User: What shape does this take?
Amino acid sequence: MLVYLNGRYVPAAEATIPVDDRGFLFADGVYEVARIYGGRPYLMEAHLQRMAEGLEALRIELKDLDGIAAAAERLIQENGVDGDGTIYIQVTRGAAPRKHAFPAAGTEPTVYVAAKPYTNHPASWFEDGVEAITFPDTRWSRCDIKSIALLPNVLANQAAHAAGAFEALFVRDGVVIEGSHSNLWGVRRGRLITYPASNYILAGITRSLVFELADELDVPAEEGMIYREDLFEYDELFLSGTTTEIMPIVRVDGREIVDGEPGPITQKLLKAYRDQLPR
Ligand SMILES: Cc1ncc(COP(=O)(O)O)c(C=O)c1O
Assistant: This one.
C-alpha cells in the first residue's frame, strides 16, 4: 500500500516522520476523512474546503492544497481502490525543535495522504439500528476545527465500545451535542433537528448532505437543541458521518427509543443517501 508523504509516494511501512514533528509533540494539525465510492473520491471538494478553513484557523500555511486531491487520485490508482474506500489526509505545522510558539517562517507543513479499501459497517447495523451511550463533553470550545487532538473523542468512543455501543454522544450543559465521530439528529413530529453549526460541533459534510436530502424529501429540518432529559421523547434518533453514513440509533444508555426499531424518516434518508451515491 503506497501513501503520500511530503511530495513522495512511498510504501506505508517506509513512511516516517521526525520525532519533533509538531503533530506528534503537540497534536498541532488537522485531518480529514473522505469516502471513496465506486473507486472515486466522494465530496472531496467539501472536505478540502473544511481542511482549508481549519488550516487558516490554526494559521498553518499550506501552499498546495490542490496537490492533495491529485495525490489522493494517484493513490486510488496505484493502490487499485476500485470499490469502496477511504481517503485520510493529515497536515501538521511541520517538524521543528520543541517550543510551544510557532516555528521559524519557512518550516514546511507535514502532509500525509492515504487511500485504501474500506469495508462498510455490517448491513444489519443500518437495518436494525445501533446503541449509543451518553458521555460528558470535556472537549475544548473549537470543535469546529477538525483537529488531530482527539483524546476526548478517543476516551468517549472507548467507553461506548466497552459498553457494547456504537457511539458515545457528548453531553454539554444538559444538551446532547454530537457523537465522538458523527453528528446527531433527532426526529420529532416529522421534523428533523440537529445541533447548530457552531464552535461546539464539527459541522459534518454528511450533516450538510442530510439537510439537502431532507429538503428533497420534503422533511422539515432545523438546527436546535436536543436536551438529554427529552431524549426519549424523540420518535427517531440517528447519526450522520463519512464512515457512519446515516445510522439509526435504537437504544441510548440501555433504554429503547420508542419501540427499538429504526424510524421511517431515518430509513427514507438512508435510502436517499445510498441512491445518490456514485457507483
Ligand atoms: C466529532 C465529529 N463530528 C461529526 C463528524 C461527522 O463529519 P463528516 O460528516 O464530515 O464525516 C465527525 C467525523 O469524523 C466527527 O469527528
The chain has two domains: 2-117, 123-275. The chain has a mean pLDDT of 98.
